[in-house]
Amino acid sequence: DLLEALQSGHLGGAIVDVFPNEPLPADDPLWRATNLIVTPHMASVASADTIGVQVAQNVRRLLNGEALANVVDVSRGY
Predict the structure, then answer these.
(1) Which of 3, 8, 20, 74 has an alpha carbon within 20 to 30 A of 14's alpha carbon?
(2) Band of the pLDDT at 77, cuts 50, 70, 90?
(3) Among residues 4, 10, 41, 66, which one is catalytic?
(4) CA–CA separation, 35 and 25 (whole Å)
């Protein structure tokens, strides 16, 4: 529906940060939409304080032998 609305001119443009299936497949036609901006699932910007808390929590988890939070899954591309 989004692609159709963009192609028909019903929407002049769009910015999309999240998709039902991520990462968006490389052959998805949305990548070729000239009036669409795709951001890497990062619509908000974390403050330095927030990032510091997350790093400290992961250091504590690592030292306690616990699973880390927010681990990158390279096989999924993010």
Answers:
(1) 74
(2) low
(3) 41
(4) 18
Determine which one of 4, 10, 22, 66 is catalytic.
22
Concatenated DSSP letters of 10-63: SSS-EEE---SSSSPPTT-GGGG-TTEEE--S--S---HHHHHHHHHHHHHHHH
pTM (2 decimals)?
0.55
Catalytic residue at 22? yes
Q: How far is CA 28 from CA 3, 24, 33, 58, in A?
A: 10, 7, 10, 35
Residue 62, pLDDT > 70, answer yes
Catalytic status, residue 41: yes
Q: Looking at residues 6-14, what average pLDDT do you find? A: 97
Q: How does DSSP classify residue 64? A: T
